[in-house]
């Protein structure tokens, strides 16, 4: 394996942070980097009082990290905290060629590798361009200082910088236009779904918590469900038939992660719109993760950021088959009313379906209608958007027994004979 694909990881412990908090974030960085296929040959935590403008860490720690990387034949140093372009260049210059990157770049690279659809590709491209733009000015300022900053040189540098900035802004504008077209298409699809007025549920949670597996288990679908971070970047919607005969629409969404770059949250707002618009949310928590509470808090914080914090939430404690009773009891005390769930054993499926039934029932009414024969359009709408339990033609019209969502109840009211 080439040196450029071998890495040393560096976490930071600032004043006021505990060693456990720093180690937790470093462990997560380890998992993120593994998802890029990079071989990790060592890691350490640097305790700092203040950031060094040259290397982020002090010169002594920089030399220690550099020696460790060269001893381990690594070409990469990956920081859990954000590096400036100048710091990245200084690392390459002062460490005999080591390439330094940060957590945000790792997450962006994972998103690039996972993006399959046009929407996901555009969203990732937008995030990367937004990352480049503010870094460009710092780059040219750094080069200007290196040259000595003469007036003619500054004019030339500013002209080139302005040209580079304009190119990136033009690209951003084009990507946003392309993305707006995709968003409009998604809005059209959402309106089409709303014509079939079923309750909507979005499945949210930390990355790799088991959201896609839960969707597959409930609906019998085959959405990609693998043990890797950010396997799902695009929302996937499936119809769920409940035991009562009612139906709901379930949507799987992109997973969250701590220190998710704000530009990625912005770029993926179109995807996360499914969560904002949902009637209900299923929050999937990986019970087997030692960091489950921090992951749950991150998910709730992102939901607040995108405007979905007021949605009714059903909490599902997933992977219950992998933990003991003590962990289950502790988690239940933190999340009262949550459902212990396992895609492997089927634990929790009846309870979750019961809760979803209750959610659907809040909006629905079971009624008997006698529709005149000329109301064939309304009958077709009932078959599409309600749960028709029986339908029988009579002399006076068609007698229909159905579970009708609230969006259709005003339209059927003139022909209700029992409810």
Structure explained in plain terms:
By secondary structure, the chain is an alpha/beta fold. The protein has four domains: 3-111, GTPase HflX, N-terminal domain (Rossmann fold, 3-Layer(aba) Sandwich), CATH 3.40.50.11060; 115-187; 197-361, Rossmann fold, CATH 3.40.50; 364-418, 2-Layer Sandwich (Alpha-Beta Plaits), CATH 3.30.70. Helix content is 49%, strand content 21%. It has 14 helices and 14 strands. It has helices at 19-34, 59-71, 85-94, 103-114, 118-147, 151-195, 211-219, 262-267, 269-277, 292-305, 325-334, 349-363, 376-385, 406-412, and strands at 6-14, 39-48, 76-79, 99-102, 200-205, 236-241, 247-252, 280-286, 313-318, 339-340, 364-371, 387-393, 398-405, 416-418. The strands form three sheets. Strands 6-7-5-8-9-10 form a six-stranded mixed beta sheet, with helices on both faces. It has a four-stranded parallel beta sheet with strand order 2-1-3-4, with helices on both faces. A hairpin with a 5-residue loop joins strand 6 and strand 7 (247-252). It is elongated. The relative contact order is 0.08.
Compact description:
This protein is α/β, with parallel strands linked by helices and 419 residues long.
């Amino acid at each position: 394996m080439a040196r450029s694909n071998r890495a040393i990881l560096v976490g930071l412990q600032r004043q006021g942070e505990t060693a456990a908090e720093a180690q937790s974030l470093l462990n997560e960085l380890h998992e993120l980097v593994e998802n890029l296929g990079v071989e990790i040959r060592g890691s350490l935590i640097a305790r700092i009082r203040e950031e060094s403008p040259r290397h982020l860490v002090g010169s002594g720690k920089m030399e220690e990290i550099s020696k460790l990387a060269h001893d381990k034949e690594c070409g990469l140093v990956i920081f859990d905290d954000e590096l400036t372009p100048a710091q990245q260049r200084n690392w390459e210059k002062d460490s005999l060629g080591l390439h330094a990157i940060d957590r945000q770049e790792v997450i962006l690279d994972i998103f690039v590798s996972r993006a399959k659809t046009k929407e996901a590709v555009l969203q990732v491209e937008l995030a990367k361009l937004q990352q480049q733009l503010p870094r460009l000015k710092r780059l040219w300022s750094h080069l200007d200082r290196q040259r000595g900053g003469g007036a003619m040189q500054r004019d030339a540098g500013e002209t080139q910088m302005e040209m580079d900035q304009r190119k990136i802004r033009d690209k951003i504008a084009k990507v946003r236009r392309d993305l707006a077209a995709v968003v409009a298409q998604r809005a059209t699809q959402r309106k089409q779904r709303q014509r079939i007025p079923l309750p909507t549920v979005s499945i949210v949670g930390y990355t790799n918590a088991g959201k896609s597996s839960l969707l597959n288990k409930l609906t019998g679908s085959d959405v990609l469900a693998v043990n890797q971070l950010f396997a799902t970047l695009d929302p996937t919607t499936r119809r769920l038939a409940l035991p009562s005969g009612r139906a709901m629409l379930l949507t799987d969404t992109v997973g969250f992660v701590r220190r998710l770059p704000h530009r990625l949250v912005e770029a993926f707002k179109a995807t996360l719109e499914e969560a904002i618009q949902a009637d209900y949310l299923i929050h999937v928590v990986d019970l087997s993760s030692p960091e489950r509470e921090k992951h749950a808090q991150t998910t709730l914080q992102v939901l607040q950021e995108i405007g979905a914090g007021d949605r009714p939430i059903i909490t599902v404690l997933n992977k219950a088959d992998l933990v003991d009773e003590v962990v289950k009891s502790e988690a239940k005390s933190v999340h009262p009313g949550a459902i212990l769930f396992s895609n492997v054993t089927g634990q929790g499926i009846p309870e979750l379906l019961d809760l979803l039934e209750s959610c659907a029932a809040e909006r629905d009414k079971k009624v008997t209608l006698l529709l005149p024969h000329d109301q064939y359009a309304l009958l077709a709408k009932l078959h599409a958007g309600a749960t028709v339990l029986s339908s029988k033609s009579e002399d006076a019209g068609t007698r229909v027994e159905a579970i009708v969502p609230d969006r259709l109840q005003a339209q059927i009211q003139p022909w209700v004979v029992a409810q």
